[in-house]
Design brief:
alpha+beta; Outer membrane efflux proteins (OEP); 2 domains; four-stranded antiparallel β-sheet; 10 helices; 17% strand; elongated
Length: 433
């Protein structure tokens, strides 16, 4: 048993001796390497590429065509005056080429609405990128502090094992001297085993969190990553009025809902444009040349420009435009309702976390005061055990109280940290920004 305990403690020591990541280093790495963020960035680039004058309809189209025909015919032509034109396997060649420019100069103001819609779509993609980055920072921070708390608990269980081993050693000496019974010694060994099992459970949880943490940071999943920092790193909470204002201005879900409203309104304008006529200008330059071995014309050549204006107005299209306009107005209403719903639910969540943080701070203060007393008691207990002025059972009771007090303090710190992170996620303002 002693050999197993030494190995466990040495493993903890070597693990903590490695280079540890700070919260800032972890966040920087996830922003640079996380695959989800990279995909969101590429979607933003696609939206930026799509936002151009051509996609809006401002730029004309130019098409070039060319065609070369070869035919072989056997023909006999008899004219009224008795002449005969006859040829076998006569070859006819024809070449035509042209360039045409089409430019829509009026489409019911659709191009202006589309131009603004493309701007909104690009802004929406950027907001989604920001939301993805905020979520990854949130997930990284939660896993960071969870990993940190488990590392602290690892130290707590290690110290508990050391004290339990001290108690076993004391009772073993007492038993060998005939001053303690075997039941006391067996009970001490059982308590040592229980403390070791708690250490192993904590180590298992630590490995699970570490694997998730490595995945977020795009590190090898089996890397023994450790973190360093304080669980008490907390930003002072601003007043509720200011916090709710920040939420309405910077929450990515609310910002996306606003963009969806603007996009829906512009799509309604696009639908209205279909009720107007469409005017287009066109110009072209064509060249044609043909050579015939049989027929009326031996050869033909033509070339030159042409230009004009065309108008098109759809009078009746089976009510397609009317249906599209009605649906677009419904989509506007839906976007507006979604904005109200997202805003309300977000404010509800924010208020709950705001209230929770007040209690979390009070609990941390309480547990901090409590831990000072338990640490003092533990020091006295160790000295009393060495002096033989306290029973092993009393040592166990003090030990359990200390472990539980340390656990509650670490949990209080975690509740405070995760609550603050949830507030940061909702407001879009993380520590250090």
């Amino acid at each position: 048993m002693r050999y197993l305990i030494i190995i466990m403690i040495m493993a903890v020591g070597s693990l903590h001796a490695q280079d540890s990541l700070t919260i800032k280093q972890a966040v920087n790495r996830v922003l640079e390497n996380n695959y989800g963020i990279q995909i969101a960035k590429s979607n933003t680039e696609i939206a930026a590429n799509n936002n151009n004058p051509g996609a809006a309809g401002y730029i004309p189209t130019i098409d070039a065509t060319a065609n070369q025909d070869f035919t072989v015919n056997s023909a006999r032509l008899e004219f009224i005056n008795g002449d005969v034109n006859e040829a076998n396997n006569a070859q006819n060649r024809a070449f035509d080429a042209g360039v045409r420019l089409d430019w829509t100069i009026f489409d019911g103001f659709k191009m202006f609405a589309t131009d603004k819609k493309l701007d909104e779509l690009q802004a929406l993609s950027e907001t989604k990128l920001r939301g993805e980055m905020e979520m990854k920072v949130y997930q990284t921070s939660v896993n960071f502090y969870t990993l940190l708390s488990l590392q602290f608990m690892e130290d707590v269980y290690t110290k508990a094992i050391e004290l339990s081993q001290m108690r076993v050693d004391y009772l073993q000496k007492q038993y060998d001297a005939g001053a303690a019974n075997k039941i006391q010694l067996i009970q001490a060994r059982l308590d040592l085993t229980a403390d070791s099992a708690a250490f192993i459970d904590n180590a298992q949880a630590l490995e699970q969190v570490r694997t998730t943490f490595n995945g977020l940071l795009v590190l090898p999943v089996d890397q023994k990553t450790t973190v360093s920092g304080s669980l008490d790193e907390i930003v002072e909470l601003v007043p509720w009025e200011e916090l709710s204002k920040i939420f309405m201005e910077q929450n990515t879900t609310v910002m996306q809902a606003k963009s969806n409203i603007a996009i829906a309104e512009l799509e309604t304008k696009e639908a209205k444009s279909r009720f107007y006529p469409q005017l287009s200008l066109y110009t072209s330059y064509n060249f044609g040349n043909s050579v015939n071995e049989v027929g009326f014309l031996a050869s033909r050549r033509s070339f030159g420009p042409s230009f004009g204006i065309s108008a098109q107005w759809s009078i009746l299209d089976q009510l397609t435009r009317v249906t599209e306009l009605r649906n677009s107005k419904i989509a506007e209403d839906q976007a507006s309702i979604s904005y109200k719903e997202d805003s309300l639910q977000g404010l509800v969540d924010l208020r709950n976390y705001y209230n929770k943080l007040q209690f979390a701070k009070r609990k941390v203060n309480f547990e901090q005061q409590n831990i000072e007393q338990t640490e003092s008691i533990l020091s006295i207990t160790k000295d009393a055990l060495k002096a033989g002025s306290i029973t092993p059972l009393e040592v166990r009771e003090v030990q359990q109280s200390v472990v539980e007090a340390r656990r509650r303090l670490i949990q209080a710190y975690m509740d405070q940290a995760t609550t603050q992170l949830n507030i940061s996620l909702l407001t879009g303002v993380f520590a250090g920004e």
